[in-house]
Specification:
Radius of gyration: 21 Å
Helix content: under 10%
Strand order of the largest sheet: 1-2-3-4
Distance between the termini: 39 Å
Number of helices: 3
Strand content: 25-35%
Structural class: mainly beta
Largest sheet: 4 strands, antiparallel
Shape: globular
Number of strands: 29
Length: 444
Amino acid sequence: MNRIEDRFKDAAGTAMPASRLSADAVYAAGWRRQRRRVATFAAAGIAAALVVALVGVDLLGSAGDNRVARDPRPDATGEEPPPGWLTDGGLVTAVATDADHLYAVKTVCRVKEQCSYRLVGSDDGGATWTVRQEPFGDALNYEVEVPAAGVLHHMVTTPNPDYVDADPESPKMLSQRRISTDGGRTWVDVREVTAPVDAVPAGGWIECRQVRDDPCASLIAFDPANARAAPLRKQPDLRMFTIRQLPQSAGFWLIGSDPATNRFLVATTADRGRTWTTHTPPDDLFAPVSVDGVTGYAIVSDSYPVRPTGPNPTVSPTESKKRVYRTVNGGRTWERVDPDRTLPDGALGVAESYVAGDGTHVVLMSTDRYLRNYAAPFERYTSSDDGRTYRKGGAVTGLGDKLTRDHRTTGLVTTTVPGVYVARDDEAVYRSTDGLRWTRHVVP
């Protein structure tokens, strides 16, 4: 475990289940939870402080680096280049609302000056791009997300005019959601109401509400047609950790634990949150993936330290053993697959996996434990026989060997919208309609 992960666990303040879950997986999942935390209507000051605590100098360099551009040329010491959001023209975010409509946020920077950001969009699958908003966002909020098909989401943080210094419950900053349904040309504020709703509205989504140190105390249902958010009446009976990213047509999957035993639980709903079914998986399936909500995969990694090599090592390296599980009934039961352990153990860790349109399980692996925020090399392993065997490379074509993580979620491939897969490097968006055949589009 490295000092970044230590910092995460210190900051998270959430009881972790006694398990064999790898530290890398916990850290990555924590970042995914952090996206949900910032997305709530809680004080943004808490979320911003947690981001700084989580990231520290290892990922961002310093808090000031998130505001001031750095020289993109590495110096004579071989210093790694700064992340895209600190270099002029850098690609910060890439998302899609459907197969034809892509969006990206790019930086506008001069060295040692504060960066600004530009939202651009493409209505023809990445062939041409136009500016949708400039400047876009600010030094804290410069990302755009797609929580549901056809919807762009952006968070705005402003000082609380009613802040009371003597009141510990009074936030210094307030966060406001904004959504756009016309490709980022106009935005409306999302209004939060207190009356609960029975189900997530058509075209909507769910998010976690954070209460103090609980990252997912309850679920909120969002209605983009009316720009409204409301508590979901029926809540799953478990301690919730995170919401898994699935296409909207696949339903909703939640990961959590039994408060009494700390055993991992998976909660699913097929009726948009009216009812929930809770399942006890055979292992700590923290990051299951699915494209249809029926067939899915999960990989569990057991990490263990190994002897450091090389001159003056500062962090003890780790390796891991992997176990692959598959479900064919929406997460109710899971079976162990890959009996010959063809998904390699050792220094390669699982960075991401997803299910392609034809059911192929694609696993992206890396030796990078620091979750760096610029294009880094990844190796692909694929299984087209229901997880029985994995082979390097496989049927995936057109996807670069270097991909950039989303610095909020550590994600590499986005599959929120049915029928479109999105990834990126520091200059271009990768788009696919089946998860196997990819096209690279440079964002001008």
